[in-house]
Amino acid sequence: MSTFIQYGSPIPLATAKRLVEAAEAEAASNGWAMVIAIVDSGANLVLLHRMDQAQYGSIEIAQAKARSALNFRRPTKTFEDGVAQGGIGLRILNVEGICPLEGGVPIVVDDRMIGAIGVSGAMSHQDGQVATAALRVLEH
Predict the structure, then answer these.
(1) Over the range 65-87, which residues count as b (16 or more CB within 10 Å of their CB) and which as e?
(2) Burial track 15-52 (b if 16+ CB lie within 10 A, e otherwise)
(3) What is the DSSP string of 22-83?
């Protein structure tokens, strides 16, 4: 039996919209212009939202964070921490498809990963804060 969260059915568009709205609210409340990407359980883009004045480079980064969190079944902060430790952790930089920047988080419902969110546009820890805030809508 796997120790990882199992993949589930793809995230519904309505759920993705709720997550994006919550992420945007968190970002706006802090004055951050961000890009928010939601991928489904097959790593396919479901929703991409660029807030006014969010940098264009964050479009690709947000998607990369979401895909990385989904494909490797863990928050991208795990990879950022590994790189920051140096030494053997630097091997992460050689693995294709890993985005070693905080801000990508799996979306888990009923113990199944239905997708992932990726946020980019500010400092990595701020991107992570926005992604985590978005997931709180699933608790209600």
Answers:
(1) bbbbbbbbbbbbbbbbebeeeee
(2) bbeebbebbbebbeeeebebbbbbbbbebeebbbbbbe
(3) HHHHHHHHTT---EEEEEETTS-EEEEEE-TT--THHHHHHHHHHHHHHHTTS-THHHHHHH
Nearest residue to 1 via CA among 111, 77, 78: 111
Measured distance CA(27)–CA(35) in Å, rounded: 10
**Distance of alpha carbon 53 from its chain centroid, rounded?**
20
Tell me if residue 100 falls in helix, strand or coil: coil
Give residues with Cβ within 8 angstroms of 47, minimum separation 6.
13, 16, 17, 20, 36, 37, 38
76 with 65: CB under 8 angstroms?
yes
Domains, the chain, with CATH or none: 6-139 (3.30.450.150)
Query: For position 1, what pLDDT does the model report?
Result: 40
Whole-angstrom distance, CA of residue 51 vs CA of residue 7: 29
For residue 2, pLDDT beyond 60: no
Q: Has residue 48 got a pLDDT over 50?
A: yes
